[in-house]
Specification:
heterodimer; A: 193 residues; alpha/beta; Aconitase, domain 4; seven-stranded mixed sheet; 8 helices; 32% helix; globular; B: 471 residues; Aconitase, domain 3; 2 domains; five-stranded parallel sheet; 16 helices; IPM_dehydratase_rel_enz (chain B); lyase (chain B); 3-isopropylmalate dehydratase large subunit (chain B); aconitate hydratase activity (chain B); metal-binding (chain B)
Amino acid sequence: MEPINEIKSVITPLNQKNVDTDQIISKEFLKRIERTGFGKYLFYHWRFDAEDNPIQDFVLNDERYKDSTVLVAHDNFGCGSSREHAPWAILDYGFRVVIAPSFADIFYNNCMKNGILPIKLSVDEVEAILSKEEYNVEVNLETQTVTGADGSVYLFDIDPYQKKMLLNGWDEISLTFQYEDHIKAFENKKLAN
Amino acid sequence: MAKTIIEKIWDEHVVYEEEGKPDLLYIDLHLLHEVTSPQAFEGLRLNNRKVRRPDLCFATMDHNVPTRNREEIKDVIARKQITTLQDNCEEFGVPLANMDHPDQGIVHIIGPDLGLTQPGKTIVCGDSHTSTHGAFGAIAFGIGTSEVEHVLSTQTLWQARPKTMEIKVTGELGYGVAAKDIILAIISKFGIDMGTGYIVEYTGEAIRKLSMEERMTICNMSIEAGARAGLISPDATTVEFLRGREHVPTGEAFEKEAARWLALASDEGAVYDQTVEISADEIEPFVTWGTNPSMGSGVSNNIPLTQHFTEASDRSAHEKALAYMGLKEGMPLTDIAISNVFIGSCTNARLSDLRTAATVVEGRKVHPAVKAIVVPGSQTVKKQAEQEGIDKIFLNAGFEWRESGCSMCLAMNDDIVPAGEHCASTSNRNFEGRQGAGSRTHLMSPAMAAAAAIEGHIVDIRKFQLDSVGV
């Protein structure tokens, strides 16, 4: 996966809580057998009406956020299904960072495997960010900071293991192969019992 | 020190641990299906990797498969996904129950039925309802496709040790109240993200009295409360369910396994990071009126008023949900007209669910405005139901009787609720568009869905049944 460290962008404000993975990528788009090409289906039924015309008041159709790489939403982002097509769609659309007060566990993990940085900030901090017009931020994973154009600095926590994986864009499977002796020993012990 | 079953199973499966790293956890059973596996197999091919332990994998086709006219899948992309799984399983030596196999069915129904699901195992699948298998006292959770690839390659996953939560269900279930109502009541009371970061254990006398099928219904929807995994300590009910199943040992070896399983139960005095309680006595038959599983209430209630919510974000979510559902605040739930009924899904498509629903519809007719389908959870369930004549009861009442699969739970195949229509569904999610673009889902138990099919609107199963015997 693509390493990630510094991201500068205007934020895309998605003023909703409990955004589920069915909304992020609807089931009719899960039939593809590739990892790519899901971006055009991101939030499809919120972006387009039944005749496939853009719904003007949906934030992804707002010209101001066309090139944004940072998505901001309320609590419990990514709840529901385990479909990794959700982060694939987010990434393919162009987002590299998602900020929310909380994330569903499986979605959070899936982001980590795809070079998307999920940032947890407090409810108040997220509300402060969402309250500003066309807010530009600078995200730095190394220093674990989100710095706003107005000088506000927000610190975030991240598991050190996952931070290292994201910063380096490492392939986790290759790393795990280095533990083959441990896995083998575990299996032998299991067989013996 | 007293330990919870969660800690016992976890500790038994740690392959490697190091400060500052998640644990490397061994996986005992990896279930696969056609939708979340193709990219993982492709990853193996691109990197010239093998499936490390094909003997610990089991695959089936469920999400995408048609529930009628299986000979010819018209959807070219869906067909491609199905043939891709067949090819991948052949190439990598993974056991597969394909669409024509007598064991085919929803992955979370066939795992337990074949005895692949066993107490003490770590079980994963690229599907969030993997939590179902926790009913047996296993740590079972959904994973993404990258993790599917990781398990295929290494039989392990890097996992941070989860926090533990006890959800204690005290008291006794009332007349007409089902396992589905318990879990919907839990989610409604504590919220859809109460379980984030936790593995949940369901305890209490109301849980102990449940059959394995009912326990699976509850664990299945743990993810709807945010918990990746939910489980129930094994007991005699668990052991008796597994006895004689295809993949469990026989004779002396079974008794030895059974003793080991029973010893996994949480110790007296074990401490959880959090404990919450709900009384079964307060739970009535439940239905959802909104667009996530926590937006529901007892069937005798009205849809809450917007002003009832204190937080602005909850008020706007409530308004948005009601606008989508085409419902009004304050209206009685039993006034909601139903034009589609779906009895199926990994939550409620087991033989016992079909039996219960059949009792409700026997000798009655589906309301003329309702289209009702029954989708058995597996081909085995279907066959057993047919042997008991349950198919005839549904067919005579005007239900359609289909082949097994996920079907209208997520509407990836042709089984779709038309835009704007309301569906009484025994499935697990009522998200916007879940059963088809613009569809409006009401989650409920099999008996409640069956009664709604007869009446054409949501009904209180308790009243329905008492009326029918002339009380």
